[in-house]
Each structure stands twice: as C-alpha cells, then as structure tokens.
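Run folding on both entries below.
>entry_1
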Amino acid sequence: MITNESLMTSRRTEILAGISTFLATMYIIVVNPAILSQSGLPFSGVVTATVLLSFFCSLMMGFYARNPIVVAPGMGMNAFFTFTAVKGMGIKPEVALGAVFWAGVLFLIMSILNVRSAIVRIIPPPIRYAVSAGIGLFITLIGFENARFIIANPATLVSIAHFNDPIILTFVFGLLLTSALVVRDVPGAIIIGIVLTTIAAWPIGRFWGDASAINFGQKTLVNIQGIWSAPDFSLLGKLDLMGSLSWSLWPVIFAFAFTDLFDSLSTFVGVAEAGGLQDANGQPQHLNQSMLTDAVATTLAGVFGTSPGTAYIESAVGIAQGGRTGLTAIVAGCCFLPFLFLSPLLSVIPSIATAPALVLVGAFMMKPIIRIDWGKLDDALPAFLALVLIPFSYSITQGLIWGFLSWTIIKIAVGKRNEVPLGLLIVDVFCVLALSAGH
C-alpha cells in the first residue's frame, strides 16, 4: 500500500535528484556561449538561447517523455558549429543556425517514422552494456579533468596532478566525503557533497585567489549589479532558413543530424541500462517520446540561436540520486530559468564541487559490464572497443560507431552472419559516412 509519507519521500527524492542534475549540467550556461561566441554570435544572446532551450526541452522530457533526463545544447556539437561550420567552412552563423533547424526537422521525420527507435532495438546487448560503462568512464574523466586531478602531459598524454595544489586537496576531500555519504545511504548524499565541497572551496578563492574556485570575498558577489544580467533575445528567430538549404550545406546538416543521433541514442541506452529505466522488452523506457523530445530540441535550438540540443549524460547524477520519473527533469529544467537573469551566480558552484559527483556516477554506471560474456571474444572485443573508445576519443559517438563496425566485421569473419541484422548493416553504412565526414 502506498502511503502519503512514501509519496512525499518519493517526491522529495525526485526534487533532490533534479537539483543534483542541474548542478551537474549548469556549466553549459556559461561554456556553450563561450564556444559559440567565437563564431560571431553574441555571448549574451547565446546565454539566453541556452537557458530557454534547456528549460523548455527538459520540461518536455519530463511531462511528455516522463524520463529523468535533462536536455540542453550538446557539447561537441557547439565546437563543430563554431570551428568546423563557421570558421572552417566560412558559413555565416545565421546560416549555420538554419542548418541546425533543418537537422532538427530531419530528426522529427525520423522520430515520427520510428527510425531512431528501430536503430536502438538493433544495438546488440553487449554493445549496449559497454556503452553504458563507457559513458560512465567518460563522465569520470570529465570529473577528474574539471578538478584538475588528471592533467595534460606532453610526454604521456595525461598524468596525475601534484597534491600540493589546494584545488586537488579540496576535490579529494569532496570525493571521499561524498563517497562516505553515498556508502552510508544518506538521503541527498550527492547534493550534500556538492554543497559541502563548495563551502570547503571558499579558502581557495579567498586566500589563493584562484578564479576557478568560489570567492565569497569578491565584491561582485554581494553587489546586485554583479549578479544580475538582463536576458538578450537578439538571436531569437535570426536563423537563415533559405540560405541554409544550399546544396553545399547538406553535408553540414547531415553532420549535425548524425552526430546528434548517435549522441542521443547512446545516452538513452547507456543511462537506461545503468539506471534500470527499461520497459518490459528491455528497451529504454518511453523511447519514442524521448527521441521526439530530442528532435524538437534540435529544431528549437536553431530558432533560439544555439547549437543542437541533446540528452545529457550528466543526467546520470540525478538518477544515481534516486530520480526515476519525469519530475526530476522538470525540476532540473525549472532550475535553469532564473539564470535568464542570474547567470553570474553560476560562479557560486565551482567545478571542483560537482567533480566528485561525476566521478562517483561513473562508478555507478559500470554495473552493466558484468553482463558481458568476456569469454566469448566475438562479443567481448566489439564491446571492449566501444567501452574504451568513448573516454579515450572523448566522444560517445566514436565509441558507438566502432562498436557497431567491429561487431559486424568480427561476426561475419567467424561465420555468424545471422547475428548481424539487416538494420545494423544499414547503420554501418552511415557509420562509415560519418567517419569519412570527420565525425
């Protein structure tokens, strides 16, 4: 029997999960404009576009798709927009926004015809388990990178940082503290860890003056002019719809569409696998609605003035907190809206405060890996490639592509053509096209 108390507890869990998800994804409000402004788009206009897209599409994911997954402008696609489409190919930013819109329209058509859902259903289970774990490693790497725990090294590519850095010590404190709270099953452990790590970071900003850590002593944080910024709607509807339909721009539209396709597919599959968000057939729950939401996000992105929207892997933070319903996405989406006016306050939560949560979520997402039969090499090797290439290439898309291609080639080579459905062969063709296009 469900009591009022259990309903309240469940609702409280979903709200905490939504706040945790927002804290893990809010960096996009600043990072996305920082990248897209290099294409010539106004920084303040992209901030407004980012907030609007994250708010409306996360609410759609919650109310319509009923999944605890945040939708926001995708990292990687904003870099493609700026450095490949605009700077590399010389496309005007307004025309590139039009290409984003038409990529979204293509998404909508594919979603209505259930093409993307069909692709999800032909993903071999070992690849699905590996993608979930690979995303976990990717999230962990992002956490370590945000905390400067793992740094670039010209001799070894990466290395561990020195422990005489106060930021590293604060991160380690936050990681161990949050781990202890999680192990002790403390309600709201992740969000408590984020808050306590933020407080612990105060001496860094106050006494060391490090810009990456919170500085409660900064005058701008107590000055109303320092926390207020009026929204800039200058990019709303500024896309060039007709100019973006030029034949020369179809490869750009294709690249936007295909990159977003694989990113969203792998996110839905990986997060659903790790969080147990599956239907009776073992497929991600409410998949068709989630895909349609993702398609709408890309279409609206062009209208609002930003790069394509997509489901965020950091949603796993809220799922690890206990989020299981659309209420988590709704709460997270609502948390974005005030930052139409209060974006400078994002500096209150430093990256080292959310880094421990990302590292721990990576651990939570490793669970499906035990379901891979590592003794069956024709299953294990493609799964392994998908698993390791996601963090090593810094791309979920690359992991999925190489998982598909290696599965097909190895299965055919060992005489198991029956384990390669026709649909997967068709997807393989698009994988090769995506690789040849540089994505």
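>entry_2
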Amino acid sequence: MFSRVSQLSRHLSRPAISFSSIYTQRARTTLTNNSIMASTATADERNSRNIHTAACLIIGDEVLGGKTVDTNSAYMAKWCFSLGINLKRIEVIEDDESEIIEAVRRMSDKFDFVVTSGGIGPTHDDITYQSIAKAFGLPLVLNDKTYELMKKYSKPRPGENPINWDEDSPRLRARLRMAELPTDKNRDHDKQFLFPCEDQEMWVPVAVVNGNIHILPGVPRIFQSLLDGLKTSIKPRLVDPALIRVIISTPLRESTMAPYLTELQKRVEAHGVKVGSYPRMENKKNTVTLVGKDKEFLDSITPEVVENLQGKVVTVEGEDDELPEANL
C-alpha cells in the first residue's frame, strides 16, 4: 500500500506537460471544440513554407455590434490580390476567449498565412494576446524591444501627463499589456516578433504565433501600415503569379446573361479563371469580372465575353457611368 502511495506521489510531483513543446513537435494534434484536427507541421515549417492561401480573422464586439465598420478585411483582400495570394476566408468573431482559441487553431492548420485584427489594446476586453497564447500553450512574456520602442515613441496627448515608466501604476500596467506577447522560448525571437514600421516611429509589433498567425491591431491606419510592411518579409515565399482581374461593364440584366456566364465558367474553370457577376441596378448596368493568373488566356477570351455581353472593358467599375444631369 505504501509503495502505491509513493508511486502516486511521484507521479503527481512530476512537472506538468508543456503544451508549447507539444505544439512544436513534428506530429501533434490540435484540439478544437468537439473535434481533433491532425497537424504535422512545426511552427518553423509554417514560418518558412511557400504562401498560397490566407485567412483574415476580425476580432471585436464593436464590429458585430455595429459600432465600428470593419475596413481591415477589405484592405487585406486587396493586399492579397495584389500579391497573388488566394484569400480563402474572412471571419468576424466576438471578444471571447473560446471563440478566438478555436478560430486561430483551425485557421493555422488550414491556411498558409493568417492575420488577426483587433483586441490588443490596454483595456480589459482586449484579450487577443492572452487567448492566442492559450490556444498554443505559450506564456505571455514582456517583450523587451516592444517595451523600449513603446517608451521611445509614445507621446502624451495634449493635456495629458507623461507616463512615468519607472514607477508602478495602473496606467503603466495597462500599457504593458500591449507589450506582453505570446512567446515560444524554444524558437528564434526574430521569427516571432516583427517590427515592419520601426522606421516610421511606430512601436507596435507583429507577433507571429505558431509560425503563421500574425497578430495585428484593429486601428485601420496601424493595421494597414503593418500589413504593407510585411510585404518585404513574405515576398520570397510567394511563388504564384499575381492575380489579374478583367472588368467588363454590361447593360444586360443578370437573368439575361446567366445562361452564357454559366456555360463560360464551366469552359474556363480548367484554366483557373473565375467568372463573377455583380449587379449595379442604380446605374442600369452590371459588372462581370474574369479573374485568373494566365494573362494570355484571359486576353484570348475577353473579346468573346465583351461581344456576348454587349459590353466594354473598363479599368475601374463605374468609370462609364453616366453623369447626372445638372440642375439648371
């Protein structure tokens, strides 16, 4: 009996399993709400493989509640299109730990490049860092470079007292929440913490978790600057040609051109071309797009499409709209 108690005692006294090591093993399983998704890539492999697909996760009660209009996902869609990255998914979720954990685990396994937006401020409802850290079993650690840049570039607003960086205070602790980042101590810090806008006197980092989750703030100006700043680091990993979009303006109704567009899509699908149709009823015109990567093929089918739609190629949607008559 004493022997069994001793064995149990030794078992309970063993160090707890390190989930960060589990997530950096070559073969691992990722838990989601009610399912298990097998994964075989390490964080370093995710961080270096070619980028074909992307996803964008917008985090924030204010977006779902209608208080804020999300413009970051639209910006990322254009950004991905310009680089030839296939943006496969955009999701908007609330500031909820379980929602964030489930979403980032799933997206990290399914897509090459993932960006999150929102929830990394100084207030109680900014829980993105801590939730993503928990998703991958990582601790939150004060990042020295983020902290130093924060002190260097943070400026008080008019009428606001400068913060005392050497004295503990609720205000300082709130600021430090934005510098405590998910950190895998077994990986190179230069791969986990990027500062693409340091030359613009911007202290905000891009924390990269599990090799492909890029955590960005929700403030559009900062989000856009950081995303643009990431181009330099990811361009060597882009191997797909840039996407090309042909825009055709047509006076035909969607119902009129639907049979032709259905047949056209079947015919061009093998060439990687997607046919899109977008109504613009207020202008009595509709837009049809041809999107693909083979310019020669797109050039070859465009005249036929224009003829069948009784339309014309435009550079920007709406450029051939009729101007309203002036009130004389």
